[in-house]
Design a protein that fits this description.
This protein has about 325 residues and is an alpha+beta fold. Helix content is about 50%, strand content about 15%. The strands form two sheets. A five-stranded antiparallel sheet has the order 4-3-2-1-7. A two-stranded antiparallel ribbon has the order 5-6. α1 runs antiparallel to α2, α5 packs antiparallel against α6 and α7 crosses α8. InterPro entries: Dual_oxidase_maturation_fac.
Length: about 325
């Protein structure tokens, strides 16, 4: 062990390679592939219905992608602060850094970025993930072994079972219920898309409203955390509390979108049912060629005589039999 600029390198530096969730990348690529494969058929759709089908495909896939992605995002709630904090244990070194806490349904993401990034001849840019399948005790012990900076260890320790704040119980259970209701909303979304392609458009509107309802249930489940006594994170001379973030508001916007679609489909079904069926191509053939005029046609008399004679002879045979 040697002294290096007043920092004791007791453990090797092992930063997490987390930059962007691999699951989110997979979800985005899958839905982009679906969108591309469905949009390819648009040139084969004639008339004004081409724009309608494009909006329908894009909107539906957007809702589906959001419902799946919200389960794996890490910004349902977050908190940020800039402060002076002790960098590592057994050292008096103090760094100025931006500290961020990002909370998802399955874990937390803690970031630490120095101002400037390079201080004490070291790059201070950490991005650490802690998930709670059951608890985060094992991952917290691994962070201690890595010798991660004090601010990251302090925030992670708040989510352990032994901490009096009890954050692990609040966020773990509310996250589980929110995730379960989001997957239920995803199932309702699939059923709605199936029903839109059948002559039961009214029930498709109902399923879109059910999708919105389960999204709102997920938000309500996560919101129960804010009703519990909040645990204040104090680092250095500053402190912060977690507040709703991007994923929560994205869930709200998606729920409102599903509500609007469901209500409009239901209302229009009762007001103009025939036009709704025509718009969704349910039980209707294409009407674009109705007004096409054909030129004067001629019948082949010889062919018709042959058909008439053959039909009469077949009837006579049946009578004799």
């Amino acid at each position: 062990m040697t002294l290096f600029d007043d920092i004791y390198p007791f453990y090797p530096l092992q930063r997490s390679s987390f930059l962007f969730s691999g699951r989110l990348i997979t979800i985005i690529l899958v839905f982009l592939l679906l969108a591309a494969s469905l949009l390819i058929i648009l040139p084969g759709i004639r008339g004004k219905s081409r724009l309608f089908w494009m909006i329908r495909i894009v909107t539906s896939l957007f809702i589906g992608a959001v419902l799946v992605a919200l389960n794996y995002t890490d910004d349902w709630a977050e908190a940020r602060m800039t402060t002076n904090a002790t960098y590592k244990s057994f050292s008096d070194a103090v760094v100025n850094a931006d500290i961020g806490l990002h909370i998802g349904l399955y874990g937390i993401n803690v970031t630490l970025k120095g101002n400037p990034i390079v201080q004490f001849n070291e790059t201070i840019d950490y991005n650490e993930m802690f998930s709670w399948h059951d608890t985060i005790e094992e991952e917290y012990e691994e962070a201690l072994e890595k010798g991660l900076p004090n601010p990251i260890l302090y925030i992670a320790e708040k989510f352990t079972i032994s901490n009096p704040c009890g954050l692990i119980f609040q966020y773990r259970y509310s996250g589980r219920y929110a995730s379960a209701t989001l997957w239920t909303a995803f199932c309702c979304w699939i059923l709605a898309n199936i029903l839109f392609s059948m002559p039961v458009i009214l029930y498709a509107g109902y399923m879109m409203m059910a999708t919105a309802a389960f999204i709102f249930f997920a938000m309500a489940s996560f919101s129960t955390i804010m009703n519990a006594p909040q645990c204040v994170f104090s680092i250095g001379s500053d402190s912060f509390e977690a507040q709703y973030s991007h994923s929560f508001w994205l869930a709200l916007a998606t729920g409102l979108l599903c509500t609007i679609i469901g209500v409009l489909v239901t209302m229009l079904h009762f007001l103009i049912p025939e036009k709704m069926k025509e718009a969704f191509s349910v039980g209707f053939d294409s009407y674009e060629d109705e007004d096409v005029s054909y030129g004067e046609g001629y019948l082949n008399a010889v062919f018709l005589d042959g058909v008439t004679i053959s039909s009469l002879s077949s009837k006579v045979r049946e009578e004799h039999i």
